[in-house]
TrEMBL record:
InterPro entries: CblAdoTrfase-like, CblAdoTrfase-like_sf, PduO-typ. The lineage of its organism: Bacteria, Katanobacteria. Its EC number is 2.5.1.17. Residues 3-167 form the Cobalamin adenosyltransferase-like domain. Pfam families: Cob_adeno_trans (PF01923). Gene3D superfamilies: Cobalamin adenosyltransferase-like. One of its GO terms (biological process) is cobalamin biosynthetic process. Belongs to the Cob(I)alamin adenosyltransferase family. This is Corrinoid adenosyltransferase.
């Protein structure tokens, strides 16, 4: 079976249920950002050596992002379709708490960077934040699932920030403190 169908050559494509929409529709902005963020997680997984548990968690997060996309693309989804995200959000909070116990207290703003892995995680975090902004904009007109998805994605960006710091910490590389040179 060919990957191409030609059905989208006129600038429209299908949502679940074979509902045709313009590729410029806000729903495809959100689905595209979910895909872009997911790809950054793939890059992180390909280039950073994680524990089996951390690796499995990130792969499952990629699966979560696909599921969120499929629910957003399905006009029959309801708020209840997204309730499973509560448990995933709690799990993210637990991972953040575990890493923070090992990290020095954060007292300053930090610049993205340090190790190569940390820098890549920071880049993924910024894509996650852009996804969050796109989701907020989308959910202003399509609120189905909003409270679950926004909280989950917000927590993911917190996790990535903490993970970037943690990667520097485990490599004995200090975070770069932001200093206002104009003061």
């Amino acid at each position: 079976m060919a990957i191409y169908t030609g059905r989208g050559d006129s600038g429209d494509t299908s949502l679940i249920g074979n509902i045709r929409e313009s590729k410029a529709s806000p729903v495809f902005d959100v689905l595209g950002m979910l895909d872009e963020f997911n790809a950054t997680l793939g890059l992180i997984l390909a280039e950073i050596k994680f524990t089996t548990e951390a690796r499995d968690f990130l792969i499952n997060t990629q699966r979560d992002l696909f599921k969120i996309g499929s629910l957003i693309a399905n006009p029959k989804s309801t708020d209840q379709s997204f309730e499973w995200l509560e448990g995933r959000t709690t799990l993210i909070e637990n991972y953040i708490d575990e890493m923070e116990k090992k990290l020095p207290e954060l007292r300053n703003f930090i610049l993205p960077g340090g190790t190569e892995g940390s820098a890549k995680v920071h880049l993924s975090r910024t894509v996650c934040r852009r996804l969050e902004r796109d989701l907020v904009n989308y959910f202003d007109k399509n609120p189905m699932g909003k409270k679950f998805v926004i909280k989950f994605v917000n927590r993911l960006s917190d996790l990535l920030f903490t993970l970037a710091r943690y990667l520097n910490f485990t490599e004995n590389v200090e975070d770069i403190i932001w200093i206002d040179k104009n003061e």
